[in-house]
Amino acid sequence: MNRAFLIPAIVVFVFLFVIPLGQSFYWSLTDFTGYDPELSFIGLANYSTILNDPSMLAGLGFTLMFAVGTMVVVTLVAIPLAVQMNKAFFGKNFVRSLWFFPAVPSMAILGLVWSYILSPLPSGVLNTLLNRWFGVDAVSWLSDDTLARWSVVFVGVWAQAGWHAVLYLAYLQSIPHEYYEVAKIDGASPRQQFFGITLPLLTPAMVISSFLLLTNGLKVFDLPYTLTGGGPGFSTYTITQSIIVSGVSQGRYGLASALAVMFTVAVGVIGFSQLKLTSVISRRFV
Amino acid sequence: MRRTLIVGAAGAAALALTLTACSGSDSGESDGVTTVTLLSWTGEEQMTPVIEDFEASNPDVKIEASYSPPVAEYIQTLQTRVLSGTAPDVFLIAAENKTNLIDAGSVIDLAGEPFMENIAEFNRETYGRDGAEYGLSTSSWAAGYAYNKEMLAEVGYDGIPETWDEFLEMCKKLQDAGHTPFLESVDQMPTTVSAMVGAKTAEMDPSVDDLIFSGESTFEEQWTPIVEEYNRLYTEGIVSSDVVALDGDQVRDEFANERVAIINAGPWIIGAVKEANPELDFTFGQIPGLADGAPYQAGAASPGYAINSASDEAHQEAAKTFLAYLSSPQGVEVMQAQTNDVTVTDDFEPPVDPVFEPMVEPIRSGDLYLPMISWQRSEDILNVEAVAQMQRMIQGQIEPVDVTKAMDAKLATS
């Protein structure tokens, strides 16, 4: 009887994941253009094109950099932030809201706003401030390959750190105070309390947070697209942008489907590996 | 329980009836009135007066319009509707979907229709193939250089010079006078390159694209000298490589705030610039020609109205009535009042903002070129590659010839 509760989830999973994935796999074996329903079966030709055309995988490097970069930096920022926000201080709720706010607007809007802030022109918002306060010449935030990549990662971290800090905060509040009181009686310093109690008990939250960050990072599209358009050159191009551009803009749905299938499998493997790894780590502490 | 089932069944029946009603509405023909469905990328606010005026003079045809903003969202919406068999009777054929719509046989041939006769040949050919004409395009657009008259006058010029060498010389004088001489957004194909290729191909028969796409020549052979000249802007220190991170709006804002003397631009900046800086004295000029070429401009025929080949005969006939109205002097006047486009029908003279006056004659003559719409296949594939490689060239990572070689390689594999 209890299994009946699984039916809605199974229906959603089948209709919104299994069937579209199956259809994508079917299209990936065809020359489907998105307009003409009459399509030809071309076997693995689309997969061969992807593996032999470097520009199709141009976004792979930056996609991995963004996913891993945001996962690591957000985790490093969000945990101390959550610890601070868990303390009693004046305006605590306001500060929590302030940090959470960047998670409210869409990434596309944030990208547009930050493109003005990080404009490489002397009139860019950040460059103007740096020049006025420190006399620094205009910095090529978005027009230098390396700076552009890190700028996108920075905005990604800025947008997500508060949300993940709130996630950690929820777990922090479930840690019994008695643990800290006992530790204090035993003479543990705040640093020892953090590494001996807080961090180990936050590992379940870290599993969830890092999994969400990694999977969202791997499928990122809207932020780099609106902030840099994938440029300069292909330096901030992402796999998802490649799929959308190939499919929608270029009418190569067969090719885009093949890329999507390969990417889904890769994300599945990476996500599964990450879950296994973090659960092993988690079991050592909890 | 029983009541729940009845309510559920009634709800499902109501939903089914609603859906049935919806699906039938697009082919409705009652009381002698034929309903023509339209997917417009001109906004509802601008399109409503046009539709109202049409329906007032054609009471036997009703237009049922739906709207989708250009460009990507429109292309996606239309593509989905074409594939699902729910495409409207009338929709827009544009640079981005031209090849796919024609290849899939989704649009009917309008050649020989009386309402196509007053349309400029350039516009008819843009959305045609092998003598067939698939889109009613009543206007064109062009981009050239917008310039600050005062800044140019300061260094002794009253307009954009006719040759590229003279233009670069003027830019250096502006630089010496303390101005940023020129900015051009490179998030799309640079206007300068498009215009220079256009000037070259206008003097050739067969055209540059005929040679490249027939395999008789290559981008490396035809485009490299032009890209090399364009790259002088960056190698000679006239323009900062920071332009690779700028979009058209940011360049426009720099111009409106008098932080740059010249930018690449089209008529779409006029309203925003005048609003931001009503005192700014500016106008437009053509893009200078290379040593062996004349000044030219980037541009293309605006998207054309096409008729769905899957619509039945009655709806196609009613759709033609709508297209006939759109190409008539009355229809063009009403539409032009809403969009401010430069129209190209031979029986209506469009009023144009005085600052854009220098560009009107080239537009109406069809002296326009845009690679994205002139290329004969793989348009977006080549465009994405060309833009990315030019950004790398501007950063000094590759040479001009590497840009054109990459385009050839892309064409060969697509």
From TrEMBL, chain A:
Name of the protein this chain belongs to: ABC transporter permease
Predominant cellular place of this UniProt entry's protein: membrane
Entry-linked Pfam families: BPD_transp_1
Protein keywords: Cell membrane, Membrane, Transmembrane, Transmembrane helix, Transport
Residue intervals of the ABC transmembrane type-1 domain: 60-274
Stated family: Belongs to the binding-protein-dependent transport system permease family.
PROSITE patterns per UniProt: ABC_TM1 (PS50928)
Subcellular location: Cell membrane
Signal peptide start and end residues: none
Domain of life: Bacteria
Membrane-spanning ranges: 56-82, 94-117, 150-172, 193-214, 255-275
Membrane topology classification: Multi-pass membrane protein
Classification via CDD domains: TM_PBP2 (cd06261)
Automatic annotation (TrEMBL), chain B:
Keywords on record: Signal
Keyword Signal: yes
Signal peptide: 1-23
InterPro entries xref list: Bact_solute-bd_prot1, SBP
Family matches, as SUPFAM superfamilies: Periplasmic binding protein-like II (SSF53850)
One Pfam family of this chain: SBP_bac_8
Superkingdom field: Bacteria
PANTHER family: ARABINOSE-BINDING PROTEIN-RELATED
Protein name per the record: ABC transporter substrate-binding protein
